[in-house]
UniProtKB/TrEMBL annotation:
GO MF annotations in UniProt: DNA binding
Family matches, as Pfam families: Autoind_bind, GerE
Matches recorded under PANTHER family: DNA-BINDING TRANSCRIPTIONAL ACTIVATOR DEVR_DOSR
Record bears the keyword Transcription regulation: yes
Protein name listed in UniProt: HTH luxR-type domain-containing protein
InterPro entries documented for this protein: Sig_transdc_resp-reg_C-effctor, TF_LuxR_autoind-bd_dom, TF_LuxR_autoind-bd_dom_sf, Tscrpt_reg_LuxR_C, WH-like_DNA-bd_sf
UniProt record, GO biological process: regulation of DNA-templated transcription
Keyword vocabulary terms for this entry: DNA-binding, Transcription, Transcription regulation
UniProt domain HTH luxR-type: residue ranges: 138-203
SMART domains cross-referenced by the UniProt entry: HTH_LUXR
UniProt cross-references to PROSITE patterns, sorted A to Z: HTH_LUXR_2
């Protein structure tokens, strides 16, 4: 079973109640959530520390095996294992108002292959955007993209870079970058993964 959590990173000295309010959704073991909040593990969680630094998606076992954690951080990771959270992936996300959020997938048997990174980033962006919509009670109006912007998104979904998309469409890399900026604005997306996720959700591309 994969356990998932999406939550805004709480400011230092946040109360347990405030930390709970910052959780968008989770299916983590209740006992672990209670322990994590009561003991203030967020302040020493090595995954949260990396999320605060806006690091791209990372695997917990990578920094554990490399010894890139303190004794107190290792204690948190070891305690997580007691709650069936042996390893996991985490990534940083940012809301349109600049709040940093953490999205984690964890469990006893996690796929650690590099190939899964892109897929998890996509899933995290889509789920994060949807969770914010549900929590706010607001559903944005469907975006209206030009035919060219839809073409750019289509090739972005194929994993192409701005340079490669420009070569395919006969446009300069700077023009593609401009299209991407417009796409993000229209979709209220904080990054490319989010823009792509929104485009799929709104069925702009399939």
């Amino acid at each position: 079973m994969v356990n998932v959590v999406a939550a805004f990173v709480s400011p230092p000295q946040s109360t347990p109640e405030e930390q709970i309010c910052n959780v968008l959704f989770t299916n983590w073991p209740e006992a672990w959530i209670e322990t994590y909040v009561e003991k203030g593990y967020a302040s020493v969680d090595p995954a949260v520390k990396r999320v605060k630094n806006l690091e791209p998606i990372f695997l917990w076992s990578d920094f554990v095996q490399k010894g890139e954690i303190t004794e107190s951080e290792k204690y948190v990771m070891d305690h997580a294992k007691d709650h069936q959270l042996k390893d996991g992936w985490s990534t940083s996300l940012m809301s349109l108002d600049g709040r940093v959020a953490c999205f984690s997938f964890a469990g006893q048997n996690i796929d650690c292959s590099p190939d899964i990174r892109g897929m998890l980033n996509f899933v995290a962006s889509l789920a994060f955007a949807r969770a914010i919509e549900i929590k706010s009670g607001k559903v944005p109006a469907p975006a209206e993209l030009t035919a060219r912007e839809q073409e750019v998104l289509k090739w972005l979904g194929e994993g192409k870079t701005d340079w490669e998309i420009g070569m395919i469409l006969g446009l300069s890399e700077k023009t593609i970058e401009k299209h991407m900026r417009n796409i993000r604005i229209k979709l209220s997306a904080v990054n490319r993964h989010h823009a792509l996720a929104e485009a799929f959700r709104q069925k702009i591309i399939t």
